Amino acid sequence: MPWSNQSGGGGGWKGGGGGPWGQRPGSSGQQPDLEEILRRSQDRLRAAIPGGRMGGPFVVLIAVAAIALIGFFGFTVRVNPEELGVVLRFGKFVRLLTPGINFRWPYPIEVVEVPKVTRVNRIELGMRGSADSRDASSTTREVPEESLMLTGDENIVDVDFVVFWQISNAPDFLFNIENPEATVKDVAESAMREIVGQSDIEPILTEARAKTEAAAQALMQKTLDSYGAGVQVTQVQLQKVDPPAQVIDSYRDVQAARADQERLQNEAEAYANRIIPEAKGEAERILQAAQGYRDKVVAEAKGEADRFLKVYEQYKKSPDVTRKRIFIETMEHVLADTDKVIVDDKNGRGVVPYLPLSEFSKKPAAPEAQP
Fold first, then answer.
1. Would 338 be classed as within a structural domain?
2. Is residue 97 situated within a structural domain?
3. Domain contains 28
4. From CA 111, how far away is CA 90, in angstroms rounded?
């Protein structure tokens, strides 16, 4: 054996040391000799090799195994399932590698970049928060220089939103833009500011949130495609859209006043919807009554005209008789409701007694009740 097994040393190394460097730290003795250490290592290697010699087929076998290992690890590259290999030969893009074990020329002939093409990346604008926290409000930090935007009607709105994106073209993503995440962030902020600047504040705060998200996503994608960024914007989510904190109370008062205005307008429209049909019905009734009265008067006038014509025809036949009859009918009509006193100058030369029999037929009026 290359080391001594004497009991006086108290250890397995020659000279009684505590290790390959001789004495344990703190113990007395001479420092180990480097040549002695190398010689002992050679002795142990010869003892492990059959026959005690390091030559012949064994050395060749070791060399072949070493070359095979170097060749395998030097000519192969592993691409994970969420990655895509981009092979550069002397700095020029030549091909793509699919997930798995792929072969390539060793460095510096070929270099492989492996961007994560299936991972959905997240960028927050207007706020910074921990994605792992269950209570996002406790870790969210506002970034007003990104969130405060000017609307089309010259109001300021505080917009926090999140952009989700992933790599759609790995070579373009690696070579066309220098800092992909910063580029996507700047494009997202610019697109949102443009969309907000073209809209009024009221729709953005209420019913136009989905429309704003879709418009910002479309504008972002158009801009990134013009850069050849190789990035696909999958979604834009508005997290918070409010007036600035300094004026939010006043804005809520304005919103309450607008709600009252809408309520009063709805009540006025309901009253109009009720009263207008009634007025139209009353107008139609008056028109129909007037038309009936007109028809009646016209019919009566025609009847009177026909009667007059008939009387006139009879008058032409016998004028004296007709004139006397008309006089008598007229006097009958005039004297029907008047008190009459008959004076006969021919026979009695005075007033003739007249008994008003019609007065006796009238019923006496009922006496008024005494208080």
1. no
2. yes
3. yes
4. 8
Asked if 233 and 136 sit in the same domain, the reply is: yes
* Cβ–Cβ < 8 Å for 203, 167: no
Do 154 and 238 lie in a common domain? Answer: yes
Structure pTM? 0.51
- Rounded average pLDDT over 129-140: 55
Task: Name the domain count of the chain.
Answer: 3
Number of Cβ within 10 Å of residue 240's Cβ equals 13
Answer yes or no: are the C-beta atoms of 308 and 316 closer than 8 Å. Answer: no
Q: Which domain holds residue 6?
A: 1-54
Cα three-residue angle 262-254-159, rounded to 5 degrees: 110
* CATH number, residue 172: 3.30.479.30
- Chain segment 30-50, per-residue pLDDT in tens: 444 556 765 676 566 566 555
| 136, 176: one domain | yes
Q: Which residue has the higher pLDDT, 53 or 309?
A: 309
Whether residue 265 lies inside any domain: the answer is no
Is it the case that residue 54 has pLDDT exceeding 70? no
